[in-house]
Amino acid sequence: MNSMFRIFGVAALLALPACGASGPGEPPLAGARVGGPFTLTNQDGKTVTDADFAGKYRIVYFGYTYCPDVCPTDLTKIGAALRTLDKQAPRIAQKIVPLFISVDPERDTPAQLKQYVGNFHPRLVGLTGTPQAIAQVAKEYAIAYMKQPTPSGYLMGHTEVAYLMGPDGKPITSLPLEKDPKAIVAELEHWVR
Ligand code: NI
User: Fold this and answer.
1) Quick one: what percent of the chain has pLDDT higher than 90?
2) What is the per-residue pLDDT across 1-54, written as a single tens digit (0 to 9) for each?
3) Is the dihedral of CA 8, 9, 12, 14 positive or negative?
4) Nearest-CA neighbor of 102 among 76, 153, 141?
């Protein structure tokens, strides 16, 4: 217990100078094995690859449109944060593309995604694909998901995380979905240059 506190304390101290005026500091996910190439289909039925987002910061969130609670809550926060940035810092906002990647390709057709993503933000990109393509991209992003049968059909359990990826496709940090949209705005303003 004691040594854990000590390690935490040292880490916290080391992290402090990074918040100085010299720059945003070392990204929490620097060097993490998160991200990779993908070929998927967007909500307009167009083939989209990771290369289409080169040069853009990306918010990458995995979920599914039939999700009863977690996904809509998180996407509402992300959408609200982006709308705030659209108004108060459009130069930053326009560098960010939010991606919603389905872990339920069986039900999440492009048409299904199309009527869903628009509820949260006009720039939210919905992505689906073959079960194999989804399995691969989920693995690259360290996302676990599992079908959970219910009396009326099924739910998909899935990892809840919103990655902020850099213009080079490398991970920067995960966004604080447990907090309010203001905290997400602050995090985006910190990292997006
Ligand atoms: Ni969900």
Assistant:
1) 88
2) 344 433 344 444 444 444 445 578 999 999 999 999 999 999 999 999 999 999
3) negative
4) 141
CATH of domain 3-9+35-191: 3.40.30.10
What is the tens place of the pLDDT at every residue in 113-126? 999 999 999 999 99
Cα 89 to ligand 1 centroid, rounded to whole Å: 29
CA of residue 12 relative to chain centroid, distance = 25
pTM above 0.90, yes or no: no
Q: Give the distance (Å) from ligand 1 centre to CA of residue 130.
A: 19
Q: Give residue 59's identity as a one-letter amino acid code.
A: I
Q: Which amino acid is at 143?
A: I
Give the distance (Å) from ligand 1 centre to CA of residue 72: 7
Alpha-carbon gap, residue 41 to 110, rounded angstroms: 7
Q: How far is the CA of 70 from the centre of ligand 1 (A)?
A: 5
* C-beta of residue 143 within 8 angstroms of C-beta of residue 62: yes
